[in-house]
Automatic annotation (TrEMBL), chain A:
Part of the ABC transporter complex HmuTUV involved in hemin import. Responsible for energy coupling to the transport system. PROSITE patterns: ABC_TRANSPORTER_1, ABC_TRANSPORTER_2. CDD domains: ABC_Iron-Siderophores_B12_Hemin. It comes from the Bacteria. The keyword Nucleotide-binding applies. InterPro entries: AAA+_ATPase, ABC_transporter-like_ATP-bd, ABC_transporter-like_CS, P-loop_NTPase. Pfam families: ABC_tran. One of its GO terms (molecular function) is ATP hydrolysis activity. Residues 4-236 form the ABC transporter domain. It comes from Paracoccus versutus (Thiobacillus versutus). Keywords: ATP-binding, Nucleotide-binding, Translocase, Transport. This is Iron complex transport system ATP-binding protein.
UniProtKB/TrEMBL annotation, chain B:
InterPro entries: ABC_BtuC-like, ABC_transptr_permease_BtuC. GO terms for cellular component: plasma membrane. This is Iron complex transport system permease protein. It comes from Paracoccus versutus (Thiobacillus versutus). Keywords: Cell membrane, Membrane, Transmembrane, Transmembrane helix, Transport. Belongs to the binding-protein-dependent transport system permease family. FecCD subfamily. The keyword Transport applies. Signal peptide: none annotated. One of its GO terms (molecular function) is transmembrane transporter activity. It comes from the Bacteria. Its main location: membrane. GO terms for biological process: siderophore-iron import into cell. It is a multi-pass membrane protein.
Amino acid sequence: MQGLLAQGISVRYGARSVLAGLDLPLLRPGEVTVLAGPNAAGKSTLLRAIAQLQPHGGQVLLDGQDLAHVPMRDRARLIGFMPQSLPSSSSLVALESVIAALRAGETLGARQADAAAMAVLDKLGIGALALEPLSALSGGQRQMVSLAQAIVRDPRLLLLDEPTSALDLARQVRLLSELRRLAGEGRIVVAVLHDLALAAQWADRIVLIHGGHTHAEGAPEQVLTPQLLAQVYGVEARVERCSRGRIMVLIDGEHAPG
Amino acid sequence: MSDATLQRYHRQGRRNALLVAVLGLAALAALLLDLVTGPAGLPLADTLRALTGGEVARGTQVIVWDVRLPVACMALLVGAALALAGAEMQTVLENPLAEPFTLGVSSSAALGAAVAIVLGLTLPGLPAVWSVSGNAFLFALGALGLLQLLGRIRGGGPEVLILFGVALNFTAAALLSLLQFVASADALQQLVFWTMGSLASAQWPGVVLIGVVLAVAVPFSFRAAWKLTALRLGEDQAKSFGVDVAGLRRWTLLRVSLLAASAVSMVGVIGFVGLAGPHIARMLVGENHRVFLPASILTGALVMSLASTLSKTLVPGVLLPVGLVTSLIGLPIFFALILRGRRR
């Protein structure tokens, strides 16, 4: 069975249950899936649970194999994870940090790793930042470096936590079209996004997470409806069709219940 | 463009390797300087001749080989061990202030020594000359063991470990004060030198011991260099790169425990070196642990060796406790470096 299947994912922080047996639909290779939902809905937690960075109940299967039983080193080859932010205090230069993504888990030759890391930075259009210390980069630049770290091992599954939160418009487009391209090559891409306009434009599938469960899922036009947005976010929303078949979400205000 | 950037990166790598080599030479020069200074005022030529096995007076032979060389080597090795311990602690505990001194390892060692000196409690079967150091070693190791155990029970994040360390530091210091309060004048005299850190009692067996510990620990540290570098990007990142972070932390702290415990049990409490060695190294070569670790080791050795020389020359005719020198001379230099680093 090709794809990512997460079933019955539950996570508790102490007495508080963040995810309560959450099921995701089968996410197929070639698809970009966006996880959306209000703050504290458990999106990041779900992403970290799938990446096996967070102890959890339930099962995560990638192409049929249970990720919890895959040795750490092999898992690193299968999964690329992009966190919300990189530490801003490190004096490592961008290139070194991407080389570390290659050499920390593997015994890879220096020449090979250096060249591969440089190629990824170039591909993302940040080759000029290669020798800058992370501490000297802006939040958005660090986010691009973080993406480079996530994709440099050429993983089958890409998990990204709010990858566009600090990016300007041009870089948002660059990052999202890179994600599209990577998915097009047969990868599974899952990203947490808050910006529903971006989600509508770039996602094949949106999963709305609310209260520790999957509230709704499907193609953008199926999920981004006034009813569902009112239920999940409590906002009064209009969904308009624009040119080229795109949909646009307009928020009029808070939803008045009843 | 990418080729040019890669070339520049490799040039920086060579520059860093060269800096490490220069640090090594400087440490060696400091060792020689340490050897030729002392109350006996030996000329450099005589010292060198004695070192290389040439013809010298019997007295010179004894001074160089039995008095000065063990002290000078001890300074170098203790500096190296403390700085390596500090560098690795700062990385695995994700805190720039972590080092054997701030985590209470040094004060626990001093407490162990005090128990031996004041109360006469020692391990059975240990020769009398080793009883103080042996006790100090046990207490230092015990402190780190306790730290890890408590951290494990509470689900040991780095912050928890740091807090336990600070608490341990105060507890050991308080107990030490209590022992000083009840100590005889004679014991107090011994104790004071111990809590201030002193190289005066350095002897060959101790030098060999700490040399062996370093020789065992360093290859493991270097092998973990990329893993430690990855950890600087955050725990989640390191894990997603395939690093077993919990295992890395456990093994590194074990290595660090041995290094720190053997260093402080030889020379007593020496602050600043475990903190400043890594920080100076970081400013010089950055945080790629493949150069950062060797640079830390050599910086620590250099600083400690210079401190040993200064402890003999600062006040003519008086041998100051070396821990006092590292703190008094080292801290202003350290602050100057930090402030300069900020401006850039």
